Amino acid sequence: MWKWTDSLDIALDLIEEHPDVDPKTVRFTQLMEWVLALENFDDDPDHCGERILEAIQLYWIEEKD
Question: 6-31, pLDDT tens digit by residue?
């Protein structure tokens, strides 16, 4: 199960779940909802911050290209 610190793994799951989405256009509020909805994700929503979401988004951008 992924935690907030598993940014790359989360990004890879998001690529699978949302293959047609441009990660550069995703708002952090939407990104957080999508991460919380991932089957492999299990962590406290209160442990998430902007820096974590930014790291996930950057990995998503890198891996999608």
Answer: 999 999 999 999 999 999 999 999 99
> Would 35 be classed as within a structural domain?
yes
3-state DSSP helix/strand/coil percent for the chain, to nearest 5?
A: 65, 5, 30
Long-range contacts of 39-46 (CB under 8 A, 24+ apart): 39/13, 40/1, 40/2, 40/9, 40/13, 41/1, 41/2, 41/10, 41/13, 42/1, 42/2, 42/3, 43/1, 43/2, 43/3, 43/4
**What's the number of domains the chain is made of?**
1
In a domain, 1, yes or no: no
